[in-house]
Amino acid sequence: MAEQVHADIDALKELRDALTRFRYAQREVVARGDHEIEATRASLEAKAGLWGSLLARRQADFAACQQAAAAGRPADCSAEASAVREAQERLDQIRRWQQRVDEEASTFRGTSGRFRDLLDRDLPRTENHLLAIITGLEAARGLQAAGS
Hints:
Elements (H helix, E strand, L loop, with lengths): L1 H69 L7 H70 L1
């Protein structure tokens, strides 16, 4: 019987230790998720800046071509017009991705916030409750050994 009590107490201690390790490991997972979201946002922002600048340059080239044509000089502005359309399409696509990332990040942050609450509040309470049970069992084991 005493061996069974020892085994039960050891199992509870292992469970408490496993919960603690789980809590710390999952905090790192949530932090990595946040980091990846921010890295993705930064990457999309950089691409939007690049394509925005490129669009402005291409629009200026197209406007210059149109002015040349309006001044009576022979000019075919179809390549410039095509370049403007391409840059605008790329920029629009990046903006759609930015919006999608923001929407998904919001969903992730809501879920991860609840998970963080579990990690930061509920699991420590459970660990403390297990510690109280372990302490009580060890005290009872000590009393039982003394009374034997």
